[in-house]
Amino acid sequence: MIPLETINTEVEKKQISPDFVRISAASAMALRMRSGRFARDFDFGGINILLNYENGCLADCGYCGLARTRPGDYEDKSFIRVEWPLVDTDELVERMAEYTNTMTRLCISQVTHGSSHADTIAITKKIVAKMDTPLSILCAPPVLNRQRLQEYKDLGVDMIGVGLDGVSEKVFHQHRTDVPNGSLSWDNYWDIINLSREIFGPWKVNIHTVVGLGETDKDMMDIFFHLFDNQI
Predict the structure, then answer these.
(1) Which of 138, 132, 154, 134 is nearest to 199 (CA)?
(2) Closest among 60, 81, 66 to 3, alpha carbons compared
(3) Which CATH superfamily is domain 11-229 in?
(4) Residue 149 has pLDDT above 90, yes or no
(5) Residue 208, CB half-sphere, CA atoms under 13 Å: how many?
(6) Short-list 162, 178, 177, 156, CA closest to 210
(7) Rounded to an integer, what distance in angstroms lies between the CA atom of residue 135 and that of residue 191?
(8) Membrane-spanning residues where (predicted)?
């Protein structure tokens, strides 16, 4: 089983959430927190924020760059094969507020870790105190329940994302459950999807899927029709 209890760490000595987060390289460039330029001139308005822990994500999905048993130090691992600079959360919030006129949506991405919920709450409070840009949470279902989803809603989060990834139960089990330190549950993910739909309403829950994990075309079409029928 994944140990989801909150792990005692000396936050003041470590660059971990909620005091520090990772943002995509593009977000860092858009907020002038890192040098660089885009291939064309445009207003970059979507900021991706990833929680960061010394011991990383406690899941072990077979295809993920942050997988627990993936070789190498966690600091050298990549979420989606691009650089994710580590930044001070307070500085990030101030910088986003400075550029609020170009911000279109912010997203906090959780990882499967016992501190994820409390840290998401802390970061969300900092953000909503400074700006009213639409805020999403890409959630980690193993650390959530109805009460916690409602807390996000009450704080002003307007959309929930769930990284289901595997579009059939067979594919999900193969890559997310039946792996060395897996044990993620297909049923748990769908429980959180359905609760999110109930709490946040129609078209306010989005599901991430991955193509190429061994699913069939029919698997893809079946889940897309199911989600559409349920206004997800």
Answers:
(1) 154
(2) 60
(3) Aldolase class I (3.20.20.70)
(4) yes
(5) 11
(6) 162
(7) 22
(8) none
pLDDT of residue 187: 98
Select from 143, 169, 172, 161 the least CA-distant residue to 58: 143
Q: Counting Cβ atoms within 10 Å, is residue 225 exposed (0-12), middle (13-18) or buried (19+)? A: exposed
Beta-bridged to residue 49, according to DSSP, are 23, 108
Residue 37: exposure state from Cβ atoms within 10 A (0-12, 13-18, ≥19): exposed
Tell me what the mean pLDDT of segment 131-137 comes to. Answer: 98
Q: What is the mean pLDDT of the chain?
A: 90
Q: How many helices (H) and strands (E) does the chain have?
A: 7, 7
Domain coordinates in residue numbering, the chain: 11-229
What mean pLDDT is predicted for residues 173-181? 91
Q: Count Cα atoms within 13 angstroms, Cβ side, for 180.
A: 8
> What's the rounded Cα separation, in Å, for the pair 211 and 223?
12
Cβ partners under 8 Å of residue 198, min gap 6: none
